[in-house]
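Re: the request from the purification team.
They wanted to know what the chain is likely to look like in 3D before they choose a buffer screen. I agreed to run a prediction and write the result into the notebook, where they can find it.
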Amino acid sequence: MKGQKKELMDYAEQMGFLVVGESEDIGSGLDFDRAGLAEVMKAAGDGRMDVLLVKKLDRLGRDTAKLLELLRGLEQLNIELYSPLEGQIRLDYQRPSLSKQ
């Protein structure tokens, strides 16, 4: 976890993002009922963030249907999603897939 945090902090600095909070979960990506994820979604809903950084997309979750629902929710809140390994991640409505920029 410590290495992931440093990588994300370095990436935020490289991208010029101001870090306003951090969250972590230890557990299965199949479980979307995690305290850290709930904390992130609350911050997003409260307008306290406009970018979410993750190590990799699968760190958010591994259940495809629930992950797409979460991504749609972030998109509706105008939250951009970035990963140091995958770049900007967004839903691609032209193709039934995710787009990594």
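For the purification team: The chain has a mean pLDDT of 84.
Please add any questions underneath this entry.
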